Fold each of these.
Amino acid sequence: MKARFILNGERVAVSCHPLRPLIEVLRSDFRLKGTKGGCGAGECGNCLVFLDELLVNSCLLPVYRLEGKRVTTIEGFVKTREYLDIEKAFLARDILSCGLCTPSLILAVEALLARRSSPTEKEIAAFLEGNLCSYSGSLQIIKAVSLAAETRKRRRGDVKRHRTDARP
Ligand code: FES
């Protein structure tokens, strides 16, 4: 089959078996290596991408479900302002996760912050449970996510204030 979808903001098409998993398409056809493999069974959380606004395991997503959808991988997300909020907080809290876990960890944090602007520590720990990473549930990552939430709120508040200030 031929599936047409939007990948990191660009219209793309791929011809392959309808059941081929998205992770293979990303890594092999599009050379997007930021999405990592692992268990291949929806267990480790290393292969996360956004499908429209939904965080999904790309190892479990067959190509036939991509038609007309927007797929955002870590390569697309790093170009956003939202990514900078998270990166800044991770650096400030010394989150030095390995290359295998970091992309999915960042996308999971974004999925949480998109839903909850001020998540509690309990909510953060529960949300990141699906990422099998040494940071999952650690106080360090919880503090980093809280800081990212604060950073984002401050940035958005600053933008609003500037817009208000600019009015005559
Ligand atoms: S590779 Fe482990 S959840 Fe997809």
Amino acid sequence: MSRELWDDIKIFSGRLRQEDDVLVVSHHDADGITACAILLDLFSYLEIGADSIITKQLDSKVIAEIKGINKSVVFSDMGSGQLNLIRESGVDYYIIDHHQPLEKDDRQVNPHFYGYDGGRDVSGAGMAYFVAKSLGRDDMAHLALVGAVGDMQDSSGSLHSLNRIILGDAVEQKTVKVKNDLRLFGRQSRPVHLMLTYASDPIIPGLTGNQQACLQFIESLEINPRRDSNSWKSYVDLSLGERKKLISALYMRLLDFNVPEYLIQGMVGEVYTLLKEEKRSELRDSKEYATLMNACGRQENPEIGLAVCLGDRGDKWDEARELLQSHREMLRKGIQYLSKRGVNERAQLYYFNAGGEINERIIGVVAGMAYGAKIIPPNKPILAFALDREDPSMMKVSARANWALVRRGIHLGDAMREGSREFGGEGGGHDIAAGATIPKKKMDSFIEAVNNIFKKQLTGR
Ligand SMILES: [Mn+2]
């Protein structure tokens, strides 16, 4: 880590250490929830009183609520982009963030000021971890990795830069094991054939979306997919030999269908196993852990995920898994709706307007799943529109792409920011996933504008 960043973290932490009662305000996704857990664990270690609020976004309404609580506030995984709003509110603040900052400020730690890319090099949970580590508390390294994976910072096949330092700590503490293996989602908790059925990164021609074909494929390799007469094996139940056989058969299939080499490469890479968690539980694999947290957040119960991060394996853990179930059920219905309804197409994008049919909380996830469910081919980004529940004159837009499109130049965050600004809305986000809010009556012009922006991104003009 750059000396300068570490020194500034220490100065920042030294000041934070003087507080005796704080309020942590964090984001409602996997990164924000794990970041919040890391900070609450730190404050309990330091015997500093701490409450927390986990929120979807930091707007004036949330700021007013925060102000009413009348404590020093530690913003986590958010705040750098809302510095003006925070300053205006007059609250006593600390910001620990990795999003694009507005300006430098000595009550803020953010990797962007030191030449790091907050999109890839470190997450909000990672920054919280470094703050904790500088104060002598480094036992949550594994959670910081869940945050990074939740923000898709391992999408190239491994974590790097500042995340690599955290990984080194976790490996040394024996809480995490790194292995080169199949990186498909669900290696711990899903039956093998369902892991293949839902594979979307990469999409496996002839298998993704077809459960029967996946089962036959596994059987054709002489791998028994059943654990016993009434349960299925997950990937981690396979023997080493069976895993190798499966991976090379998947390789061959992708090559046969001319899937680009770099997409095939991404299928195998680092997987991060949480060694203190039970085998076959969602918490055992960093990616599945992150999905569980995202489900809690999107089902509007992030505090249940938070309790699990802080060690609850009783009631809250049961509730978290129930939330995951209902989350999956909502997604299943969303996908069903979308495949019946189909999508509209422009030269550079797909889009659909779900109106009120799909909840705005999950519509982005549904849009991203449209590739895996073979509702759309992976050749263009997809925009999903939904009613804004809080303001009927506005619409929420969720944009999703895939790794191949990002490689070709697509940056959804830029497109959403630029496109929405033109019509008096606001937007932003990551290259692969982003969102915006726009006036309802501008929907068609917005689609046209974004179509042009994508064209520019792809051709450079
Ligand atoms: Mn984040």
Amino acid sequence: MIFRRLTAAALSTALAFSPSFVAGDVAGNDLPDFGDSSGSLISPTQEVALGEAFMRSVRAQTKLITDPVINDYIVQLGQRLVASSDAPNYPFTFFVVNNPAVNAFAGPGGYIGIHTGLILTARSESELAGVMAHEIAHVTQRHLLRAYESANQMSLPTAAGMIAAILLGVATGSTQAGIAGVTAVQAGNIQRQLNFTRANEKEADRIGIQTLARSGIDPYGMPSFFERLHQSTRLYGNNVPEFLSTHPITTNRIAESMSRAEQYGRSKERDTLEFRLTRTRLEVMESDNPQETLREYRALTKKQSSGPADRYGLALASWRANAKDAAVKQLHELMKDDPDRVLYRVTMAQLLMDNGQTQEALKLYKDTLSLYPGDLTVGQYYVAALIEAGKAGKARDQVLKMLRHKQARTAPIYELWAKASSISGPAWETNVASAEVYYLYGNLRFAIDQLQQALDHKGLSEYEQARIRARLQEFRQLTAANEHK
Ligand SMILES: [Zn+2]
């Protein structure tokens, strides 16, 4: 974990965090029992509740990357590492924070945030995976338990909001408003507990490298990334990357991780194309100078060493610089060699939409969905395109089909549902969908308000009423739990 060192005063910052305490259906049964070595620390159920509240605070406090392609890549890589970790059944959640600082962090409940700056700085998938494996190890080795215990002395939303602020580096000394109910002593306590000890860092490196090797990813990724960050400190001056400010990288640490990597040896797998394509997409889509980016990719693709990721970058950069025909041509070329790649298909469909070729775009999405049934990335783009094309009814059917699966119940998909139903569904349905969006963004009051409005509408079946009432009851219980603590 990585965060700025804060003074107690720095923690006095206005935060839009949410009240929340998740009870009921989130039993901790699936969680591994980590034993009782640290005494009376928080229970798995409490940790789940803290984690969910933390994530809602994160959404309220910072900008996350919503591009399904980028998120999906990070989730897949994360799950691959988790499968080879010491806690393969622990419910990790990976998300991407839109922040150029080279950083990653582990929050309560296995929520792991990856900064865009880290993805863009990594030169290989193994470097990115090295940092992620390190963060996963902080979770599996229970390094955060004492911080949670300190947090447990205060109300859950307050604790979750503060942990999120510290990890995101949002808390600054410039704001004066305090977090309700947090004393300077409590704040300092959490801050201290969130700072890992040298022993923790060493252990996270050791376990992290083991995870890398077990998952078939090059274990040298970790020392190689450390070394590069270490060398780059001279260039950064006072602007040291976040990762370094809390994970001091000494020559000793590099040497130790290097000798550990040597024990496992190099893995055969080189960089995946997915990594290079994802990094390229992030780089081009987030560029604030599309013309300059286009010039760069033109130069790159002229080199002998250029590959599909550079050509994909050229297609995207052309598109962003408004040279749509060139973009389509480039993508056609890529698809000739690799016709079933989801990323190419989705990008082509987006381009076609942008070009006014709606029918072709929708057909491509539909074909891609029949090739990869249930793919949430394709599904989300398809629903958004249907709405844009004025086919909200079809969009609603599609999103309802997706929502039958638990993993689809995310804020962006609920937002699509709200949008589609506001055009083509019963009025109460928009309220229900909006309630879920508000809930996931940490605003229980608005969520409750939406459900009450939903119940005011005529024409709800008894079943629908009962479902809404049950959800309303859950939200009210969460509110009450917060107020009583
Ligand atoms: Zn660490």
